[in-house]
Amino acid sequence: MNALKTKILKQLLALQADRINELLLYQSDLSDALQSESKSTAGDKHDTSRAMIHLEQEKLQHQFQEMQLQLQRLREISELNPLEQANFGALVETTSDFFLLGVSLGKQVVDGRVIYSIGMEAPIAQAMLSKVIGDQLHFNGKVTEIIAIS
After folding, report:
1. From the centroid of its chain, how far is CA 57?
2. Stretch 68-88: mean pLDDT, rounded?
3. Taking the domains of the chain in order of start, what are their residue ranges?
4. pTM of the predicted model, to two decimals?
């Protein structure tokens, strides 16, 4: 299962790098648009356009910071030794699904397997916390068993 975890982390790191690059390109486009608006003649229309661009830049900065944090968490997970309990950085295989605990990046497909990358604050992650192989997990009226952790 460690090989699967390595593939998952590589895929998620590449995904985050791509997303960050897209944000950087968009940020560059916004900077160009702002410069273009600054060169325009003064007036309410141009003031409004500049204000909207500034708001979009602030929103983009928050997204960038969140993505950087997720990237940092992925790197931390990569450096962890295999785990024996469901905690931060664990890849947990249940009888129904795979879960990577620690970073909320949603549903991914790796080697034909669906993996849910979830943050530690997610209710399912909280239900898994400190569980070990063989433990049962009761969540949303369903019972599943943990069959592997790495």
Report:
1. 21
2. 91
3. 2-79, 91-149
4. 0.82
